[in-house]
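The records we work with from here on pair a chain with its fold. The integers have meaning only within a learned vocabulary of local backbone shapes. A complete example follows; check for yourself that the lines match position by position.

:::
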Amino acid sequence: MKKVLIITYYWPPAGGPGVQRWLKFVKYLPEYGIEPIVYIPKNPTYPLIDEELQKDVSYNTTILKNNIIEPYGWASVFSKKNTKKISSGIIPDKKKQSVLQKLMLWIRGNMFIPDARVLWVRPSVSYLTNYLQGSGIDTIITTGPPHSLHLIGMELQKRFGVKWIADFRDPWTTIGYHKELRLSESSQQRHKKMERDVLNTADTIIVTSPTTKAEFEQLTDKPVTVITNGYDVEPVAKEPLDEKFTLAHIGSFLSERNPKILWESLSELVKEDAEFKDKFELKLIGAVSQEVLTSIEQHGLTDYVNNMGYVSHSEAVKQQRKSQVLLLVEIDSLDTRCIIPGKLFEYMASERPVIGVGPQGADFADIIKTTNTGVFVEYTEKEKLKDALKSYFAQYMGEGLKVHAIGLQQYSRRNLTNQLANLLKQS
């Protein structure tokens, strides 16, 4: 059986979307003749914890652990709340940032390049150098963010001549929050150089969207393969749908993902339609930025909000299946056209209609359309959004609100792992 070393920062008990991709790949790779060996930090500072995800880790999986120095642990001494928010990607609006927040972002962006886990690179190379000798491993995979993990792969490739695959769950220098880090010109150039070095040194690049593939192909001649995120068959008991007309957003609701056209549309519908006003509920599941909550309040929607906070993955899946309509929002920026949120695939598998809001040319718009799982609107298409809400509400009132998805099997975790296994066998 072919052995593959997978270097990842996020692993159970970490919660959130970052852990799902490689947790599921590792779960299914043995079915395709691949033995995954996983290297993770021994003492990480995860912003979200979900102990239930441990059940997806086979007892037969070899897990290697090594200590990590976490700057976020130091920063929490000064402000635990701000540290947790920034480490989970919730960055306050620039106009509303405190002096401490500005300082923390500047330090994060300019003192720790490419990211706050860069101090794990050197000890990891040392640890894995000892492990790889005589291990029979000829292929290494690094997955980012954090993109500092790719530096581990680059050095191990140099030392051992192993095949190295760099997996990008998100882009590097064009990711949405990169501009928020208060980078100096020299820091920006260092990021870009590291990105080019990784892209031109790795034997193969894996990305999660066609737009990222096109972007990277402008920077490297190395092969770039798209393997999207996906859905798994979750063992969650089916429950009745919510009695209310619930519009549910699951996951981090960042400041930049503040769809004011949605709040305007919902506010108008509450005023125009007495039945809508009586039946409507907005479910927020996960971390929500203060800017989003303020916008909701300004549009008179606070009384309709059920803010559930962070829940376990299994509870999130249950809430997806119970909700009447699912909301997917991405930042309105050219840089985010490539982002295909991992929860989209679980949304589609939940058999509930999806309303997607995002930038023009978003990759996930095509997926929603081709799978017949919902409606996508751009930030300029308020009337289209309002019409979609009206249509779904009318179907809800007629007890006929459901979707008839097509072609979902291509996004199953097993099918995607098969694609990965084929790629590994070629390496």
Observations:
- Residues 140 and 164 are 5 Å apart (CA to CA).
